[in-house]
Amino acid sequence: MVKNISNKNETQQILRKFGFTFKKSLGQNFLIDSNLLNKIVHAAEIDHTIGVIEIGPGIGALTQKLAERAGKVVAIEIDQRLIPILEETLTDYQNITFIHGDVLKLDLKQIISKEFKNYSSIKVVANLPYYVTSPIIIKLLEEKLEINSITVMIQKEVAERISAKPSTKEYNSLTLLMEYYAESKVLFNIPKTVFIPKPNVDSSLLQLKIRDIPPVKVDDESLLFKIIKASFAQRRKTLFNNLLHNLINKKNKKELEEILQDVNIEAERRAETLSLHEFAILTNQIKKNSEKLMKS
Ligand code: SAM
């Protein structure tokens, strides 16, 4: 029987055996609670028909649990020192492939088509490094990968921002981007005590179920995201002022006023009060009124 590596004693033994020291800069906080790991795998709904991508396996606590249930696990780890540890510790599992690299730089489309030929359902499950949580999730969504869901442990505050409702202080451009691509849910919170070393922040398990089609129809997706970004540039400014300072050519002030009137959005509103639906209507109207409105 293969040893369960997700407990404090076993983790410490592995770290000692390989003389491994944590790199704070890589967000290395390893999970040491077997029950919690089971809960994560259960929440992600993993079975032998599923291919899993894990980002940042560390010494493999979550990887092991995933490999016990999934058809195949591809684990991407940036820290070269961890690869021989993973290969030795999880040597008994034939269904794991380790890839050394920075997930932000790798061609994930190519990895998926090469590694998951016989899988129709692919899921991402990870305890993400907190210093790059948002860029990683954005990359997974924007590249429109063939994945069904993303179940990740992340910093509690970031999870709250991603799943926020309009007119709350957590609602921001990231919330809207996520809503466009996925349905998000915070499944549960996680105490600091289940990691070594203990992080400074609280954590949550976030689940994003990727949508087949976006919930709004826009003629120009990249314009939608430009408008959202510009509108939130300075939270205390009005929508009108943010758009005028960050996106629309100032000489077209009048035209912008008219556009907002046409779509029934008051110029004095703040971006945080607009729904994704309203941003979509605004985007289509700006697009319709020609590109000369934009800043050069
Ligand atoms: N999955 C392990 C666990 O739960 O115990 C470790 C999680 S730890 C929070 C994050 C892991 O991600 C570390 O092993 C770290 O080296 C790795 N990592 C950090 N940045 C990365 C990146 N850009 N690409 C891939 N892995 C990364």
Describe the model.
The chain is α/β, with parallel strands linked by helices. The chain folds into 2 domains: 8-210, Rossmann fold (3-Layer(aba) Sandwich), CATH 3.40.50; 221-293, Orthogonal Bundle (Helicase, Ruva Protein, domain 3), CATH 1.10.8.100. The protein is built from 12 helices and 9 strands. It has helices at residues 8-17, 34-43, 61-69, 82-89, 108-115, 133-142, 156-162, 173-181, 221-231, 239-246, 253-262, 276-288, and strands at 30-31, 50-55, 72-77, 96-100, 121-127, 149-155, 182-190, 195-196, 203-210. Helix 6 (133-142) runs parallel beside helix 8. It starts with 7 loop residues before the first helix and ends in an 8-residue tail after the last helix. The mean pLDDT is 95.
